[in-house]
Amino acid sequence: MADAPVTIRTRKFITNRLLARRQFVVDVLHPSRPNVSKAELSEKLAAIYKADKARVVPFGFKTVFGGGRSTGFALIYDDEASQRKFEPKYRLIRSGLETAPVKTNRKLRKERKNRAKKLRGTKKAKAAEPPKKGK
Amino acid sequence: MSIETEQQSEINMDDLAKSLDEIRLSMSSAREAIRSLQEKVDRGELDTREGISLLSVKSNVMLQYLQNLVLLSAHRALGHSLADRTPPSEPFIDQKRGARGSDAGDRVDSMIESRLALEKVKLMEGKMKYQIDKLVRAAQEPVKSTQDGSIDPLAFRPNPAALMDQESEGGGEGSDHSDEGTQARDGIYRPPKLAPMPYNEPTRGKDKKRRGPLPTALSSLAQMDLSMPHMESTSGLGSTPALMSGRAKELQRMTEFEEENFTRLVMKKKDAKKRAQDEADIALGGIGGASTRRGRGGGLDDEFGDILRSVGRSRSGVVGDGYEELRQKSKKASVLVRSRERDHDDVPEGGEDGPRQRKRSRFEKAVKSSKKRLRK
């Protein structure tokens, strides 16, 4: 529901020159709304701090008991290079600057490993296929 | 042979004659003594107001019994029947009653009387046993020179001064030396005289009763530093909510850390759940003891307990889709369950804080309202 008003307050504002960013704690007041999405928050924060909305990284939001208020953190980077340099990988994936690695089948990998445990040397390459049934 | 028996019988005869003479002499002298005593009693010289003491009564009655027994056996040896008796005319209670006769039946009556008297004396002796024993003990012990007359062994009242005397001597009631000295001759074991104490069962760990919740005033006092300036309002509540329990302080410290360091704490799922529960509890005014409590804590239960109880919550949780749950709800409960929930008309609900879970409440309300409308 975009019509309900949302109030954003920031606390503990710090300009972190070492990591080329501005970081602060965000208090979002959203009565009659379950909570506010991170995308919407980054837009609002970019409007307040006159930055690019791609540079705003909100994370760690928790709604207090009873609803109406959420508390979390947000970072605003100066430029994309420093963001790629200093942000952890999962947040880069969240914001879209990186792609997630291909999800391998975990079960297949483990089965292959267990089959390879039984063999030695070049025969390990043969263990890539499962044994044919019936033979 | 016959000469020896004759000599023996002669000797016996001589002995018999001598003993008979002795008996006659002693009997005459005894008669004289008794006559003089009787005259004394008749003249009133001897003080007989208090009667005979209990201890001498016992021996005298016993002697009387034995005399009667001997005379009775003599009567029976002569062949007199036991039915002959010459009782005195006055009744038994009369003090001026004369003596009985000397027939066999009279002897039997006297024996019965003596026997009864002996039994009664025995009972009375039992009641006075302590005093008699004390007297006997005092007589048996060597005479202790008493410095002050307060410690009189014959006194029957409890004497607190005697306790101090015992302590100064260095031996308590349970000490071996004094006990052995006085009571070793008896050979009877006397246990130490200890005051009786009530037996309190030791409290077991699981039976310990839980104490009530700490009052707010005390818990806030424990944490506030009263030397610092603190704010108070007219309602007495203050502006900042005081942290009641240690858990509340811990949670506040957690949130402060998170905000200070720009991270969220990494916790296990269980801990995260407990933290959320405790925060909910504290927000509603409880103390946040999720670790010690099963289910909902004080805050949530206090606020919403009656509501949450009145809503029907099935034990099995979510049953398939919503339709399945509805179908299960529409089924009748067992007879036992229905009987438990039926008594709203008969039994007044005094002890509960709200309506219990009832099956047909809405239907009943609809029925009532429709009846009212029909009456109008």
TrEMBL record, chain A:
Signal peptide: none
Cited PROSITE patterns: RIBOSOMAL_S24E
Keywords from the named record: Ribonucleoprotein, Ribosomal protein
Region (Disordered): 97-135
InterPro entries assigned: eRP_eS24_sf (IPR053709), Ribosomal_eS24 (IPR001976), Ribosomal_eS24_CS (IPR018098), Ribosomal_uL23/eL15/eS24_sf (IPR012678)
UniProt xrefs under Gene3D superfamilies: 3.30.70.3370
Comp. bias (Basic residues): 104-125
Compositional bias segments (type: Basic and acidic residues): 126-135
Alphabetized Pfam families for the sequence: Ribosomal_S24e
Keyword Magnesium: no
UniProt source species: Somion occarium
Lineage: Eukaryota, Fungi, Dikarya, Basidiomycota, Agaricomycotina
Name by which UniProt lists this protein: 40S ribosomal protein S24
Family statement: Belongs to the eukaryotic ribosomal protein eS24 family.
From TrEMBL, chain B:
Ranges of biased composition (kind: Basic and acidic residues): 174-183, 338-347
Coiled-coil ranges per UniProt: 20-47
Organism: Somion occarium
Keyword line: Coiled coil
Region (Disordered) location: 82-107, 163-214, 314-376
Domain of life: Eukaryota
Pfam families from the UniProt entry: Sas10_Utp3
Basic residues composition bias: residue spans: 357-376
InterPro entries in the record: Sas10/Utp3/C1D
Name of the featured protein: Neuroguidin
